[in-house]
């Protein structure tokens, strides 16, 4: 089955700096890669996703890049703000059947004011 | 729309007790999922239902059973709770896309403690 590895497990940045979180996946059949943000005590919520026919996608301060050859994808947050502090999860899906997602173990991002 | 709802929000069980976690969605989604979340381990899939009338095991199914009651509702049952099942449980739903993945919408979670 799919295996998703995520790094780093914790990340602290100064407000205004950029943050980068990286994930690798094992199954070359994976074709959908979402990123979820989970604030303390809350449910995970989708912040951005990318499909395998796209190399990069941007939404305001958030961007995701995908390298299918190397089987890795990354989340980039620019001009970080304290409200970006949360746990971020990457995931991969083969997009067949029930579209099961395989999640990374999460990155706790702390933005220091 | 309420989205995905779960009951209860919190539960404390003694070892050996049984309970059912309820989940419902009002988005007309075909697929539903149960995850458990433990510190440092991300979200692990327990069971899923690709469509009404079908259920399948995920990554960590031992000690659990599920029922897809209808298109809206998907319940998770612990027949004989163990301390190792102390966790936060999330239900999720998504549209079923055969040509690519789809966003999963999560419920608010159930925090379960087994003593």
Compact description:
The complex is a heterodimer of chains A (about 110) and B (about 120). Chain A has about 110 residues and is an all-beta fold. Chain A contains no helices and eleven strands.
Query: What's the number of extended β-strand segments of chain A?
Result: 11
Quaternary structure state of the chains depicted: heterodimer
Give the largest interface. Answer: A-B, 28 and 30 residues
Rounded mean pLDDT of chain A is: 93
Give the CA-CA distance, first to last residue of chain A.
Answer: 41 Å
What is the string of helix and strand elements of chain A?
A: EEEEEEEEEEE
Query: Tally the helices of chain B: what do you get?
Result: 0
Poorly predicted tracts of residues of chain B: none
The coarse silhouette of chain A is globular
Number of strands of chain B: 11
Q: What class would the helix/strand composition of chain A place it in?
A: mainly beta
Q: What fraction strand of chain B?
A: over 45%
- Rg value of chain B: 13 Å
Distance between the termini of chain B: 36 Å
Mean of the pLDDT scores of chain B? Answer: 93
* Low confidence ranges of chain A: none
